[in-house]
């Protein structure tokens, strides 16, 4: 990956970082002008840096995302993509409905990380994903036949960020269970 491509990726992923870098460069250049540094190459450097940062920020603002936004509407593609090499069974209970954006993304990411962890810690083991909609929200369960694994801090934070509850641990009789209950009352759906 070339330097410009790397910069564009970073700028797209962290637009506030790009804005902060641009502000820092402009501040430093302004400070240099105030101090009246008589440096011959400063004028050319200012132009190059301003054009470079300006182009990078502009590209980050005009490029369309290269991937669709995370959503439970794409659960089949997620399971298919991360289920390669092992049996993954998934079921949906209740009436699927639109969820608030943050809940939809959190649910998708929790399932994504659970499947990734199953692939990492329980390679080849059977995995079952269960998604249940009810009037109060959505419940996610991801079960596999793998061994115990480290605490899933990222998934816990995702669930708690949207006001949900999260648990992960060994299943009775063996295997691993991830469970998240995310609030999304029907009247708050987008």
UniProtKB/TrEMBL annotation:
Domain named Histidine kinase/HSP90-like ATPase is located at 106-152
* Record's keyword terms, sorted: Kinase, Membrane, Transferase, Transmembrane, Transmembrane helix, Two-component regulatory system
Q: Which Gene3D superfamilies match?
A: Histidine kinase-like ATPase, C-terminal domain
Give me the ranges of the annotated region Disordered. 163-190
Q: Which residues cross the membrane?
A: 16-35
Superkingdom assignment: Bacteria
Any single biological process term in GO? phosphorelay signal transduction system
Task: State its Enzyme Commission number(s).
Answer: 2.7.13.3
Catalyzed reactions: ATP + protein L-histidine = ADP + protein N-phospho-L-histidine
Name the InterPro entries on file.
HATPase_C_sf (IPR036890), HATPase_dom (IPR003594), Sensor_HK_TwoCompSys (IPR050482)
GO MF term set: protein histidine kinase activity
- What's a Pfam family this protein contains? HATPase_c
Name used for this protein in its record: histidine kinase
Q: What is the organism of origin for this protein?
A: Micromonospora inositola
